[in-house]
Amino acid sequence: SFSTLIGKFYGKHKLPINKNKSWEGSLAFFISSLGVLLLFISPIMAFIVSIATTLVEMLPKVDDNIAIPIVVGILLSLA
After folding, report:
1. Nearest to 57 by CA among 34, 24, 29
2. Residue 13 DSSP class
3. Whole-number pLDDT of residue 66
4. CA Rg, the chain, in Å?
5. Measured between alpha carbons, how far is 29 from 17 in angstroms, rounded to an integer?
6. pLDDT tens-digit series, residues 37-76
7. How far apart are the first and last CA of the chain?
8. What pLDDT shows up at residue 67?
């Protein structure tokens, strides 16, 4: 939800692969996910999971409300 708020109010630069989302919203998603993950896992793993989920969040025609928890669950299980 943080990425949506930032993207709607401050998103001026659209993503080339998904015109419905912005670089600003994606950056907000990355920062917020990294911040939360740092509370629970190592910094390196938090960075990797944040990058992966940010890339999934950028994808067009993918319901990120389903895909992001699946990706996080898989990556954290492998860790």
Report:
1. 29
2. S
3. 93
4. 12
5. 17
6. 999 999 999 999 999 999 999 999 889 889 999 999 999 9
7. 26
8. 93
Predicted model pTM: 0.89
Who contacts 62 (Cβ-Cβ below 8 Å, separation ≥6)?
Answer: 56
User: What is the DSSP annotation of 31-59?
Assistant: HHHHHHHTTTS-HHHHHHHHHHHHHHHH-
Burial 3-39 (b: 16+ CB within 10 A, else e): beebbeeebeeebeeeeebbebbbbbbbeebbeebee
Q: Are 15 and 23 in contact (CB under 8 A)?
A: yes
pLDDT of residue 8: 86
DSSP 17: S
CB 24 within 8 A of CB 50: no
* pLDDT tops 90 at residue 1: no
